[in-house]
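Lab notes, practical 5.
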Amino acid sequence: MSLVQDDSRTAVSRAHREEWARIVASLTRRYGDLDIAEEAAAEAFAIAVEKWPEDGVPPNPGAWLTTTANRKAIDRIRREGKRDDKHKEARMLHDDTPLEPLGAIEDERLRLIFTCCHPALAPETRVALTLRMVGGLTVPEIARAFLVRETAMEQRITRAKAKIKAARIPYRVPAAEDLPVRVAGVLAVLFLIFNEGYLATGPATDPVRRDLTAEAIRLARLIRALLPGDGEVAGLLALMLLTEARHAARVSATGELVTLDRQDRGSWDRTLIAEGHALVRERLAAGEAPGRYQILAAINAVHTDARDVRDTDWSQVVALYDQLVRVDPSPIVALNRAVAVAEMDGPEVALAAVDRLADRLSAYHAFHATRADLLRRLGRSADSRAAYDQAIELAGNTAEIAYLTRRRDELG
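Output from the prediction step:
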């Protein structure tokens, strides 16, 4: 491969990361049709792959791609012979009813994100559509990420676009009074994407999917740039950064999960940690009541601030969990709080708190894994082994299964 070809391929890849969502968003706004926008954008990038090695990378790759995609969209509309209908449809989908002032929230990519994460769509559909339309991932990539057949994922995305059209879901940023709830839905989608990468499920996938964690962080950065004043956006980005910072220490050379207390903290990414800590401090300085993601980020900031596990300020961790319980009184939060309580008040106190969650978390592998560890520390080996068995049966991550199996087998 020549140097020119290598440079052009690098340019196409960079343009895809930086321009895909903007191009799809601008075409969607103009033509009111996600199908046309997606197909035209894909064709433009395919043409770039062919032409740029021969003609050179254009001075403004984004403008070149947008112009090419726009011509492809017009070609398709003319081929279908429905230009008037398409334009009428576009006016219906793009409701230009004036909204309350939202500051500088005018980026078309934000409109696209809110459309893909509309509450009328099922949660798993929002994830798939966001990865395709905003992230630019291919259908096979999304299908592999979520262990779904390509045909099934294609149908899911196609049905989602059809529902947006049939329900006339407007392509716009929500009104001011609806914005907090709708932003929460967008963040939930990004958190799902990140979690699937952080602790990937399924026997045929890598235990950690850095492609997905990186994509979630990239999209979170995009949301942060578009909504710089939103505390929960900053909180989620900080949480992702502080979690991703530990990736190099999370899985051993033998493919086994390494728990936080045993990780090589020297291998943590200090650049990501510094950025995450800065976001946490920024939110503290804002003086606003923190939401769920901000508190989770603060908990991770305490952990990543300790150079040794023995330096962890467990009293602060428990206090933050107490705050989180008031915001999110879920059994999973209570379970994680109990893990911190074990470090302060001992495993017996923590086990009592965990056992009170049995009715609600009996199908959750981490519940049984937590019980197994606490029972182990109390010297109740037989009960611990039984809890490990249940955790292994329910776990879906290969590295986690390897870790739990070794811990169980050590009991004899």
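Observations recorded by the TA: Residues 90-106 have pLDDT under 50 and may be disordered. The radius of gyration is 24 Å.
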